[in-house]
Specification:
143 residues, 7-stranded mixed beta sheet, 36% strand, 3 helices
Amino acid sequence: MDVKFTHTDQELASVLELRYKILRKPWGQSKESATDSLENTSYNAYITDQNNTVIACGRLQENENKTGQIRYMAVDDQQQGKGLGKLILTALEHKGKEIGLKTIELQARENALEFYKSAGYTLVEPSFKLWDIIQHYLMRKSL
């Protein structure tokens, strides 16, 4: 499966729909909570199925000091365990190297810690609890 990057509003809308479905809706959050003001300066990677439906996505944004941040990683529930998250993560890391980033950070949910560790990320510390429900952990990797 090919990893693509969004270039159109329609592609971004499809990515936002998956983000909402996986990362926000189960906790009763709004669609608006699945995006922020940095979409236009970030890199959104995604994978579609044979029907052109987005089934996996993730975003890389550039922060200060040549550090990137990966956010909004999501894989459709029916597509879990097929390596799609790894494909998205690898594409975002390659993009980070391409634009000159030295480090990537992310805030991982507890259920994703082993996934990120297996991709070479180091657990730095517990960071915050989203909606007082979902514990997140700061993780970091040098590129």
